[in-house]
Amino acid sequence: MVNSRTPFRPSKVCRALTLAGLATLFSAQALAQQTEQAEQTEQQKAEEQIEVISVVGSFRGSLANALNQKRFETGATDTIKAEDIADFPDLNLAESLQRIPGVAISRVAGEGRQISVRGLGPDFTRVRINGMEAQSTSGGTDQIGGANRGRGFDFNTFSSDLFNELTVRKTASANIEEGSLGATVDMRTARPFDYDGMTFAANLQAGYNDKSEEVDPKGSFLFSNINDDGTFGYLISAAFSERNILDEGASTVRWNNVNDFGTYRGDANAPELQAINNAFRPRLPRYDSYVHNVKRTGIATALEYRPSLETRFNLDVLYSKDDSTRQEAFMQGILNAGANRAALTNPASGITGGMNVLDYEIDGTNTVTYASFENALIRNELRYDELSTEFLQITLSGQHQLTDNLKIDGMIGRATSEFDNPIQTTVVMEKAGQTFSYDYRGGKRQNPELLFGAGVFDPNGWTTNSVRLRPLGAENTFDSAAFNVEYVLNDILTLRSGLHYKKFEFETHEARRQSENAAGVVMSPDLIRQYGAAVGPYGSWLVPDLAAIDARYNIYSNTGAFTVSRDFRRVDNYSAEEKTLGAYVQLAFDTELGDTGFRGDIGGRFVKTDQSSTAWATLGGTEQLITAKHDYNEFLPSLNLVFEPMDDVIIRFGYAEVMARAGLGSIRPNVSVSVSGGARSISGGNPTLEPTKAKTYDLGLELYFDNESLLGVAVFRKDIDSYVQGLRETKLFTETGLPIQAAIDACNAGPGYGEATGCTENVEWQTNTPLNGPGGNLYGFEVQYQMPFSFLPEFWNRFGFIGNYTYVKAQMDYINNTGVVLATRDLQGLSENTRSATLYYEDEKFSARVSLADRARYLTNAIGRDNNDMEGTNATRNIDAAMSYQLNDNWKLTFEALNLTNEVDDQWVDSSGNRLTYYHATGRQYYLGAQYKF
Questions:
Q1: Contacts of 851 (CB under 8 A, 6+ apart)
Q2: What's the predicted TM-score (pTM) here?
Q3: SS3 state at 87
Q4: 3-class DSSP string for 167-216
Q5: Assign residue 751 a region: left if phi > 0, alpha if psi is -120 to 50, beta otherwise?
Q6: Residues paired with 675 in a beta bridge
Q7: Backbone dihedral angles phi then psi of residue 67, each to the nearest 5 degrees
Q8: Range 595-599, long-range pairs (CB < 8 A, 24+ positions)
Q9: Helix (H, G, I), strand (E, B) or coil at 648
Q10: Over the range 429-445, which residues count as b (16 or more CB within 10 Å of their CB) and which as e?
């Protein structure tokens, strides 16, 4: 086999490339604007003949090792490796991934939760742990989407110290399972043969948050050993952490120009009232205070058996438990309960109809940025959640070299993630006839002034508005098996083939009270308590005392008015099952074309999916639990090429057809099937949704111009065939995937079933469900630069830099349910610009670095609600720092500082009004610790 690899050599143009690389990285914003306007076997062989740079226990060493891995991959990948034993570069896996070009993250409680890759959100990204697909889900506040009932992976359920390596695969290959439009993320835990002989490491840290002013523990350890024969090894690692976070700010839920007010300064016919009622005002202007307590425990074990050089077996077990509580307190004015008045002469109604506007200001975007009221209704509420996520994965894998040319490998495993929210209790109390004002003018948008009358702070006179009990949960299970064969045909060609079976099961449940009314709870002063908060001008406000209310009324008894049942919330009780069988054939090659190194692979993957989904449906006016079935087959070709026209220069090209399966909420058959006269209709979910498919193109240039150094540029394009949206369509009932009995029941509830009435499953029905609507093109480019400044004089040569910039653009036609295009806008969740940069210093004793991560604003709803044109989240900039000092061969002191600028989560509605819907800060986080290893 031709295998020409040249060792890294220092370049004479090193200084020029350094300056050029930095200039390219930081001027990429201008280039992005111009673009918008215009439109592991190879690695193992290679590493035997290259200079392997391995600095154990250092950040620079982890960068160098990751760069070596990237260089000899066939596809476009980026890797992050542990910088020391049981010591990942960031405290959170998502926070680490955002250092990779094209990766952006979303946060909850100040911590990374999910990722987007090249503009495509969590549902378009697959995650594998130790080679097997898995999913982990958690809960969240309503403002960030609540419980995860989709296909996205929640990275905040794991301690980063359990992992040795993260790899993001941005191009597809036939031997990698299907299911991703954005990327496949591979996460690998530690194994005993990663270390030399007996190894032990322990980390202990104390964390401090400057907002909650709490000190929290964090610790981890790892023990690994290999027998004297070097044939068997075992490893166990564990991690524990606790976080107490104060998450405070202001929110409005949304803004609207409905729910008219009754009078302006006592005059129901005042001309100013028409302008006020036609302008946008907040639905629920309020102060928020959340208190999070998160306890996270993780254990990873590995057994590795290598009876010979040709054979190895691995058993990997990963367990994680996330136990959390969250308390949410609100003090709010109610401006969303009333009705519109056709004219001032019409009487006002509802809560807002009884309010008197005393003063106001309307800005140039028709937004009431300031208003004060009499006779307002105030509601204070307290919500308490207990949440847990338990994850367990067991994977057995092995490989065997049968002959010099023939190798086989296989894997079997199971991964389960169980999210449980057994207590989600909210009690809302209210008091009418109060004075209230809000002010979002100018700089007060970030720090609104909400003023409440004295009566709001008097515990007398409150009444109970509602008691909400909403326990819920979700469970995901993957059962996977794979078998692969690799045969070396000659010195140039290698043939690979394999089978992969996967069974995915998902189930979610939620229960509620039949009516979320006051349930006879009388809000007396002894059922009210003071709540201390550091938001707004008030040091505390009044909230319901949940413990006192439960002691008096036994609200968790599940009897009488407090009975909770899944039958009272059937729409959120559903399940899905997918069985997939995939087979692939791939031809890999490694040769030379003249003096140009040329390697790559070409192949195709065939996958068959059998899907069933179960949910409650309304059939002929009767609710029934039904199961719908659907199946589809896809053939997905792929091509990856790598050219090496000269030493240390690599050109990559990739093409693939890829797919991502439809969202779990969209495929549930929670339909309503009804017949009225000759009108036959179906509305709800769509169990026959096809996967989202795309053709992807990737072209990259990588210049490895010095030791541990890279200047890389990549351009990419994805032609997305379709995007799931709500549409109307006419089709035969037999084409819907619903059981035929549903049509029979609906017809019998109407004119009758049969040819005589024309109401059967074989005639056309009107459907209003999610459908595979029009797609669009996604395109962009990445620039990345990495280099230690070893060419500089002493001291300065200890510094180094790694940075990247990504530009992505994708617009979709967003349509209504009749197919009319409402707007052409950016893909939801897509930030056009993301960048990250790290400047580091490292010598024999001391190491320090500071990191920046920027994400541009992005849309969360391309078509806004309540007459706003769109909804989104504003840009973020996070700056972190870390340093360590090596006392001796065994001991190291560490210090980390996260979110140094106290970055906020800033959400908005309306592109011109930039109306605040949520603005929260969680404070700066510091960790001081020590590490011991031998």
A1: 99, 836, 837, 838, 879, 880, 881, 882
A2: 0.90
A3: strand
A4: EEECCCCCCCCCCCCCEEEEEEECCHHHCCCCEEEEEEEEEEECCCCEEE
A5: alpha
A6: 680
A7: -70, -40
A8: 596/643, 596/644, 596/645, 597/4, 597/642, 597/643, 597/644, 598/641, 598/642, 598/643, 598/644, 599/42, 599/74, 599/641, 599/642
A9: coil
A10: bbbeebbbbbbbeeebb
**Residue 819 has which token pair?**
């197919």
The two beta strands, 692-703 and 163-169, are: unpaired
Report the distance separating Cα 142 and Cα 134, nearest Å: 25
Q: Which of 190, 119, 105, 118 is nearest to 153 (CA)?
A: 105
In the three-class reduction of DSSP (H, G, I as helix; E, B as strand; rest coil), residue 657 is classed as strand
* Lookup result for tokens 């090894």: 233
Contact 286, 330 (CB under 8 A): yes
Q: What letters, b where the CB count within 10 A reaches 16 and e where it falls short, cover 665-691?
A: bbbbbbbbbbbeeeebbbbbbbbbbbb
Q: Give the Cα-Cα-Cα angle 755, 758, 763 (nearest 5 degrees).
A: 100
Evaluate whether 397 touches 188 at the Cβ level (below 8 Å). Answer: no
Distances (CA, A) of 862 to 13, 50, 115, 150, 203: 47, 50, 19, 19, 45
Structure tokens at 490: 């000659």
pLDDT in tens, 762-819: 988 888 888 888 889 999 999 999 999 999 999 999 999 999 999 999 998 888 777 7
| Distance set, CA 456 to CA 358, 429, 487, 527 (Å) | 19, 11, 77, 15
Give the DSSP H/E element, type plus range, for residue 522.
Answer: none
The stretches of 215-349 forming alpha helices (DSSP H) are 271-278
Round to whole Å and give the CA distance between 167 and 69: 10
Q: What is the 3-state secondary structure (H, E, C) of 367-392?
A: EEEEEEEEEEEEEEEEEEEEEEEEEE
Distance (Å, whole) CA 692 – CA 686? 14
Cα separations in angstroms, 885 against 422, 870, 889, 930 = 45, 49, 11, 9
- A 10 A CB-CB count for 663 gives 18
What is the 8-class DSSP label of residue 484? Answer: E
Question: How far is C-alpha 42 from the chain's CA centre?
Answer: 32
Distance CA 927, CA 302 (A): 29
d(CA 893, CA 654) in angstroms, rounded, equals 44
CB atoms within 10 A of CB 472: 24
Is 878 within 8 Å of 853 (Cβ atoms)? yes
Helices (H), ranges, 27-169: 28-38, 41-47, 59-71, 93-97
Q: Which two tokens stand for residue 410?
A: 């296989």
Residue 195 corresponds to which tokens in the numbers above? 């270390």
Rounded to the nearest integer, the mean pLDDT of the chain is: 91
pLDDT tens by residue, 897-932: 999 999 999 999 999 999 999 999 999 999 999 999
CA distance 221 to 73: 32
For the stretch 868-906, pLDDT in tens is: 999 999 999 999 999 999 999 999 999 999 999 999 999
Residues 904 and 915: their CA atoms lie apart, in Å, by 16
Per DSSP (E only), the strands in 793-903 are 799-815, 821-826, 833-842, 846-855, 858-861, 871-873, 876-886, 891-898
Comparing 40-44, 582-586, 724-728, 880-884, the range with the smallest average pLDDT is 40-44
> CB count, 10 Å around CB of 530?
13
- What element of type H or E holds 22? helix 14-26
Amino acid at 269: N
Q: Give the pairing of strands 311-333 and 368-401.
A: antiparallel
83's tokens? 């910088």
H or E segment to which residue 353 belongs: helix 350-353
